[in-house]
Amino acid sequence: MAVRPDPHRALANPASHEPSWAHASGWAQLSGSRQNVSCVLPCRDRARTLARLLPILSDTLTECGYPWELIVVDCGSQDGTDSLMSSWGELPGFRYLPLDGPPRLENAFEAGILAARGDAVILLDPSLPHSPELIPPMIRQWESDARLVYAARDAGGSSVLRHWDDTRTAEATALPDMHLPPECMGLALLDRRLVDWLVQAG
Fold it and tell me: What span, in angstroms and rounded, lies between the C-alpha atoms of 135 and 138?
């Protein structure tokens, strides 16, 4: 995945409008935590899925203990997704980003990454190849200085987490044509430093 700004996309501009974060937990408020988490969720005609998934993600992200935002990137839905998100968008932390252009998952992830403000950016395919229950352990690996955490399948077909530390990230970003593992399109967490590198590398 390469992140390339596209002036033809209908991207939200965080500099011109600063959406609110969902509330921090009491622990985060007491500890003075200044970090926050973004979750990017691309979709096309998945209003029913979103209606079930958004409450789950809201609870999951809140339990992780950081202020958070959830960015729903809409690739031309015609099933009432916009109406659904107009309601959710009134709540702190929820952002709706409609896109123009080809309805490709990679385009939606790129747009969401560019709009995300978090110190960690979670990418989640709404078809759920992996359970959102993996998000808290991914956050814990990030807290232990992982720069990339992503879900993959082991030989038995079960979900497992793999990660890049500083050394692996430095090796990957030194390559002339670096790409994230393809499994990142299912469920992944990127540290802000890796996100910034991807955006600059374009």
Answer: 5
